[in-house]
Amino acid sequence: QLQGPEAAKAFVSGFLKRSMPKMKDEAIQDMLTRKAVVLEHYSKRKKKEKRKKRKGFTAKERRELRLFEIEPEQRRYALFLPLHELWKQYIRDLCYGLKPDAQPQMVQAKLLKADLHGAIVTVTKSKCPSYVGITGIILQEMKHVFKIITKDDKLKVVPKLNNVFSLEIDGFISYIYGSKFQFRASERSAKKFKLKGTIDL
């Protein structure tokens, strides 16, 4: 019985003859003397399961959980006046104190990107006359609508499209053209707005 290198050589020679029956013995011997034969075993790699990243609640789940609904007992104008006071202080800090000599363009640019939750707005112009004159505190801003609580404790859902809103703070009056303002509050901070106004609704 062969042992050591002779046994290994015989095993490799026999393996090559079985694997390549058409190859002549001389060619096999030449392969053994001139080249190294490497026998490798490739193990199957387990595929990593990709974890699906959950972005959050779906629109259906949000509706079912009533995440954005304001309960009737909480629809009171007086309840949100402290929020308005906090919003005014936030805007003053954002606009460096809102001094009388502040540039209106600077104030306008800051307001366009500011969070409007807590601001008091008035619908000054609309293609739907029933919206004109609605005044109240913005409780929720969504991509296409404002939810506003009025002084008579009524919650109004006012679309941005085809409406112009006015916003006043410390003597500065700014106008928001809703048709050009259809973004979520979180999206507006990175949005570049043109400061030139338009008379189109």
TrEMBL record:
Leader sequence segment: none
Organism for this UniProt entry: Eudromia elegans (Elegant crested-tinamou)
Gene Ontology CC terms: nucleolus; ribonuclease MRP complex; ribonuclease P complex
UniProt entry keywords in alphabetical sequence: Nucleus, Phosphoprotein, tRNA processing
Physiological role: Component of ribonuclease P, a ribonucleoprotein complex that generates mature tRNA molecules by cleaving their 5'-ends.
GO BP, one annotated term: tRNA 5'-leader removal
UniProt-recorded name of the protein: Ribonuclease P protein subunit p29
Top-level taxon: Eukaryota
Assembly and binders: Component of nuclear RNase P and RNase MRP ribonucleoproteins. RNase P consists of a catalytic RNA moiety and 10 different protein chains; POP1, POP4, POP5, POP7, RPP14, RPP21, RPP25, RPP30, RPP38 and RPP40. Within the RNase P complex, POP1, POP7 and RPP25 form the 'finger' subcomplex, POP5, RPP14, RPP40 and homodimeric RPP30 form the 'palm' subcomplex, and RPP21, POP4 and RPP38 form the 'wrist' subcomplex. All subunits of the RNase P complex interact with the catalytic RNA. Several subunits of RNase P are also part of the RNase MRP complex.
Location relative to the cell: Nucleus, Nucleolus
Pfam families named in the record: RNase_P-MRP_p29
Keyword tRNA processing: yes
GO molecular function: ribonuclease P RNA binding
Family listed: Belongs to the eukaryotic/archaeal RNase P protein component 1 family.
